[in-house]
Every structure is written in C-alpha cells, then in structure tokens.
Amino acid sequence: EPEVTQTPSHQVTQMGQEVILRCVPISNHLYFYWYRQILGQKVEFLVSFYNNEISEKSEIFDDQFSVERPDGSNFTLKIRSTKLEDSAMYFCASRWGENTGELFFGEGSRLTVL
Amino acid sequence: DAKTTQPNSMESNEEEPVHLPCNHSTISGTDYIHWYRQLPSQGPEYVIHGLTSNVNNRMASLAIAEDRKSSTLILHRATLRDAAVYYCILRDVGGGGADGLTFGKGTHLIIQP
User: Fold this and answer.
1) Whether A73 contacts A102, CB under 8 Å
2) Which end of chain B is more exposed for a tag (fewer CB within 10 A), N or C?
C-alpha cells in the first residue's frame, strides 16, 4: 500500500539552528500538508500546499517556517532559526484531489530543540 | 470548521463492539464528518467519513443522525490494536477543498483484554 514517508525520524538540534524536515508524499497526490504535535497536545495544522504554492497557513506558520516542493517528489518543511518551543512531532500528509478525500499521514519526524 | 464535542475517554473490552459518540450541533450542509485515529507514537490514520447516510468500510461503521447534529463511530469487534485517540472532524467542502483538518482532543479509547 502506498505511504507517506518522512525523514529524519528524529532530529536533535541546537536553538537557533536551521532544520529541514523531508517528506515524500504518495506519488499521484496533489495536496500536501504539514502538521505538528507538541508532546501531550493536539495535532495542529501548519500549512497546506497545492499547485506549487501555499493555499492556507495557520498562525503558527510564521516567517521562520517555509515549505518547498523542489523536485516533484519531495515536500520539505524548513524552520529557519529553531526555538525551544519548536520541539514537537511534525507530520506530513497528502491527499489525492477529491474534495472529500482522506489525508494520508506519515509516521512523523520528532524534532528536539536544545 | 464547525466544532465537535467528544468524550475525553472511553473504555471497552476486547472483542466487544465500541460506540464512539460525537456531537456537532452547528454542522453546516457542506460539512463532511470525518473520523481519524492516532495510535500511540504514530501519525493520524483515516478511519471513515460520510455526509448524510450511514457508511461502512473494513475498519468501522459510521452512523449519522437524521438531523446530522451527531454521529457515532462503531468498531464492531474491538481488538487491543484499536486502542488509540479517535478524532471526529468536520470538513467543509464548500470552499474549494484545499484546506486541512482541524483536530480536537479526541476520545482516548482504552481496550481491556
């Protein structure tokens, strides 16, 4: 069964460092998402991406965050200068195209900022 | 997205049916009812969705009230592997379809052996 894959599974970084989290969505999917989940809290929407541009973003997704689909297969989330409060699980998701269709989530990348 | 209300937690026994309720009294005509679950240390996983009619798939059944103000996710025979947080989410498809999902706190389902 096709799946969304994310790398790395766990990254530890120092505060102020740049981090790139990578995702390979399911190949024929058109809509891509990043979510995060701080330990013990809700899954929070960060950003959605369609047709090579951001279609919606939340208040969390400030200027420190950016997304890119550089080569038609990878979908990346960059955090420019990490803060302690960026420590969380980051989930990538993708959806084919039907308006009501299900989102397929990856296993997540755990980011620990020290 | 319109708000949903779910119990914080529920407990059930293995091999018995489980009925997970969700209230969504402010649901609009273009809101689909989606259910996702999150197993421990994993990403969310789609379970089922519907609009007005009851729906069945290999994982579960979704019973939707006639007025659509509530719905129930039914696991017909719970296993230990079904222990997870279950999220009931309304998704408005009237606005173009590019939007993500808004997760609440969900219901933490505990399965006793």
Assistant:
1) no
2) C
Which of A45, A48, A107 is the closest to B43 by Cβ? A107
- Sort out which chain A residues have CB atoms less than 8 A from B103's CB and list them: 35, 42-45
- Residue A106: list chain B partners with CB under 8 A: 43
CA distance A10 to A109: 5
Q: How confident is the model at residue B95 (pLDDT cuts 50, 70, 90)?
A: low
What pLDDT is attached to residue A73? 87
Write the pLDDT tens digit of every residue in A66-96: 999 988 889 999 999 999 999 999 999 999 8
Residue A102: both structure tokens together: 């299900």
| Alpha-carbon gap, residue B102 to B21, rounded angstroms | 18
Of A56, A91, A105, the CB nearest to B99: A56
